[in-house]
Amino acid sequence: MKNKFYMKEFLHFNGEDFVTFNILDVDELKHEICVVVTTTGKISVATYPLLSDDNGLYFEYGPSGDKIDLNKFEEA
């Protein structure tokens, strides 16, 4: 079954640069998310702990722990 989040995209401004996230996989059993991160011309794949609150699922990004809400991702 195809993951409903697969390849959805979110553009985030971290205070200095724009960062684009594309979801590769959301594993709710392991509480992990795997995303393609594109920033300043560099592309990487990263896995983050998947967290939740009253607004839904999210992960934290960067040294300041920016909250990236999965419900803000859109079809690419």
Provide an overview of this structure:
With 76 residues, this protein is mainly β. 0% of the residues lie in helices and 58% in strands. It has no helices and seven strands. The chain has strands at residues 9-13, 18-27, 32-39, 42-49, 51-53, 56-61, 66-69. The strands form two sheets. A four-stranded antiparallel β-sheet has the order 1-2-3-4, with no helix packed on it. Strands 5-6-7 form a three-stranded antiparallel β-sheet, with no helix packed on it. Strand 2 (18-27) and strand 3 (32-39) form a beta hairpin.
> How much of the sequence is in beta strands?
over 45%
The secondary-structure class comes to: mainly beta
Strand order of the largest sheet: 1-2-3-4
Mean pLDDT: 91
Tell me how many strands there are. 7
Number of helices: 0
The biggest beta sheet is recorded as:
4 strands, antiparallel
Poorly predicted tracts of residues = none
